[in-house]
Amino acid sequence: MIKAMRFAMHTPWLVFVLLVLVLFAISSNSVSLFGTNLRSIPEFMILPLSDWAGNALNWFAREASIGSLTVQTITRNFAELVNWPITALNMLLADGIVTGAGFNKHQLMPPLSWLGLSSALVLYSYFLGGRRLAWLSAIGTAYLVFFGLWQHAMTTLASVIMCVIVAAGLGLFIGIASYRAEKVEIASRVVMNVMQTVPIFSYLVPTLLLFGYGPSAALLATVLYALPPMVHATVLALKSVPTEIREYGEIAGSTKRQLLWKVELPAALPMLTVGLNQVVMMSLNMVIIASMIGAGGLGYDVLRALRRLDIGGGLEAGMGIVVLAVILDRITQAAARRQSAGLNHEVRSPRPWLYLLIIFGATGASFLLPALQFWPEKMMLSTAPFWNESISFINQHFFDQMEALRNFSLLHIMNPFRDFLVELPFVLVLLTLGGIAYVLSGIRLAAIVMGMTAFIAVSGFWEAAMISVYLTACSVVIAVLIGFPFGVYIASSPRLLKPASLLLDTLQTLPTFIYLLPAVMLFRNGDFSALIAIACYAIAPAIRYTIHGLRSVPESRIEAAIMAGCTPTQVFRHVKIPSAYPTLLLGLNQTIMMALSMLVIAALVGTRDLGQEVYIALTRAETGNGIIAGLGIAAIALISDSLLKAWAAKKQHQLGVKP
Amino acid sequence: MKKLIASIVSSAVILSVSQGAQAFTPESKQPIKLMVADWTSMLINTEIMNIILSTYGYNVEKVIADDSARYPGFEYGDLHIALETWQTTQEAALASSIKTGKVLDLGETGMHAKEDWWYPLYMKERCPGLPEWKALQDCAAAFATADTAPKGRYLSAPVSWGGNDEERVAALDLPFEVVHAGTDAGLTAELKAAYERKAPIILWVYEPNWVSKAFEGEFVKFPANTPECTSDASWGPNKDATYDCGKPEGWIKKMGWAEGETIWPCAYDMVRNFKMDNATISDLVYQVDVEGKEVEDVAMQWARDNEKTWRSWASCAAN
Known about the structure:
The structure holds two protein chains of two kinds.
Chain A: H1 2-10, H2 12-28, E1 32-33, E2 36-37, H3 49-62, E3 65-66, E4 69-70, H4 71-95, E5 97-99, E6 106-109, H5 114-146, H6 150-180, H7 182-197, H8 200-211, H9 215-239, H10 243-251, H11 256-292, H12 298-307, H13 311-341, H14 352-368, H15 384-423, H16 426-440, H17 443-459, H18 462-492, H19 497-509, H20 513-523, H21 527-551, H22 555-563, H23 568-602, H24 610-620, H25 623-655
Antiparallel strand pairs in A: 1-2, 3-4, 5-6
Helix pairs in contact in A: 2-16, 3-25, 4-6, 5-13, 5-14, 6-7, 6-9, 6-11, 7-9, 7-25, 8-9, 8-24, 8-25, 9-11, 10-11, 11-12, 11-13, 12-13, 13-15, 13-19, 15-18, 15-20, 16-17, 17-25, 18-21, 18-23, 19-21, 20-21, 21-23, 22-23, 23-24, 23-25, 24-25
Chain B: H1 2-20, E1 32-36, H2 40-55, E2 60-64, H3 70-75, E3 81-86, H4 87-99, E4 103-120, H5 123-126, H6 135-138, E5 152-156, H7 165-171, E6 176-180, H8 184-196, E7 203-207, H9 211-214, E8 217-219, H10 227-231, E9 250-257, H11 260-263, H12 265-273, H13 278-289, H14 295-305, H15 307-313, H16 315-318
Parallel strand pairs in B: 1-2, 5-6
Antiparallel strand pairs in B: 3-9, 4-7, 4-8, 4-9
Helix pairs in contact in B: 2-13, 2-14
């Protein structure tokens, strides 16, 4: 008896499981408590949160005013202002100066020639990263030109450039403010965490209300999405500036401002570039959604191609986005490495006039040779028919097998799991989550987690939220089942690291829309297609963190194990996995975050979850519903995030390792 | 270098000449904002209007907006002209927006909207009573999939389109499960996949659209949709339920921002006169969606071939 009690003391889990079982028994017998049964959420508890949020926003967007100016006038003028540089960049890079349309259309000035821009880019890549990077840029830009994607890629690039400038500036500003005052940091961290998890569709409607339709609204929505990593990176970068450097600055008699701009920021530059890199990637991630509210460019090409079921065409345009992402990513990374390598090794950069000469020389030549302005349509390549026929072939010859797979998963795994989750009594879920949080961390986390669960319950989206949890859980399981072994394999063969990182970048930047449609053709509209799309996207972090975790296990530990006579399997099981545990948990966490962020897009194949609520709210311009359902997704994300982080911290503490 | 300067100069000359050649001067240089949504017929019609207005020297901007989310934009003057407003989905919303006094009904386009349950012709062999809706009561199994069996599977439009299919299935006692696609493309993707395999499918199709041109099939004949059907339970085959009929069909109208009428009266006149018919637009849509041509090229070709027609719409600019 004493033994059993001690056992229970050491494993709070056991107490916990018992508690859950008791609760389950009570609630499934519909014992009533305070006049309601515990099974469903009583009517009076559901608050009209959506109406409140909607009304508040409508008031803010239409009637609120600062002094004599209404908020709307201010935001609209701001949108006009932002629109101006976008238009200018677009003229320069993509369209040239064009007036009129139809019979009255005139090309007054051509855009900068593709030949000039790409040559300058290749030269710059060579200077930054040598021959390898130069080849990458050359092949990438050649793809854009020969596949007829150049012009729209430049439209996309123009909006990405604008977005990166605004997001980086704003992120830097908030980051510096957070670094200087702890209160600001806490507030900004909370806001940023919520912003990162609320699906972008949720804030599209408010941005449309405030900033009107068109490219500037798309830009601002993208900025909101890409801002958090820049803020995080800025705070982190400034905090990690060595104190000696700071002290030197102080000894030299710098003012606070001089210290920041002349000492701290330059010293923090390498890490700031990492944040910038994230901003670039996230803006490109948003390209397709931004194009739904008027940003045009490659995202719009993808949407148009998919509308006419030209999957190959969509894939080509989507690969254009990947090419932009990979080139920008590798260039910013190379720049970051140069910065951190210091000035000693610097190869002299070609002078700016050389770049200008190349760009304007080629543009000048394009007056004589129109093919240098717009690559002639007749000479464009396309692989689209091949992809379209492949899908048709698979559809005609392998449909039965795939249908069997779909039916089995749906009927025997997914649907029962969904029904189970939807049927779970609310009180049980609330207490279970609270209990887990308590065991992992303490009363504070338990209160936070239960508060967020209660928020979902009172919002009236409980069932949709449970369906979201079911979809996310299923796809995370698939992503981990495939991603973990794959990551283990890559980690053990260093030669594959570079190709694998290219593959992962492609998975993360190729718009998900592209695999959504083939999934629908082969697996019909519904949860199974959604599952595949979500798993495809969420698999990248599962692989990345596995590789990272396994490769950062200290050599000394492995050597010690081998000397102790462990077989490779034993080393893997008893040394590598336990040491990598915290990192693997963080990877799981990221996988869940990615899956949750995909829910909204999965709504496009007809799911019935929170993502669908957000999507419907977007198409009907119902601000309140969109925001509240979006916050519901954020709540799920934050709950799982805080629980997993607490678990990882606990493990880390037990193992005495750093992730 | 000489040639370079020459070409700059010549393009400047072209501009001044083209402006000089215009007999008509627009009432205002303020840009007219044409709304563009995401389906193809709207893109083509809007581009045609863009060509016409630009030819007469108007400053035109295209603004992308969502079908249902357009009304605040029109009421606040962010959007000025929309070429397509479908009675089938937008009737109530348009009427209530017109009531604010800020939005104008600019007349019908002449196109006729129809949307309803649709099946490929080969399904007729497996369900011989079609197109009569009663046949669906007996051969639902022919449309079943493993997860809906023994009920049939009916693929409906995205939830946000409305359509009352759940009510319809209940009222007409159809043994079908309603599954919603997430997007328009999701609908046609599944149709294409099923069509390639001659597999069972019944789904929501709308016209004018390229689907009925690319795939052979027909609409189910439901009892006609009348106002009584949706308001009066005793009407129709089921005496105790509403929605015991098909989906509504009807006009596709142009709409505009009311204040714009005073700014560009002649442009509004051209929009009022704009006409298009189902056969022509389906053909243009087919060229874009199936043959993969650019919207701008297809619209421009139409404008070249029908110059007389659209010049006649612009009588106010002819002086």
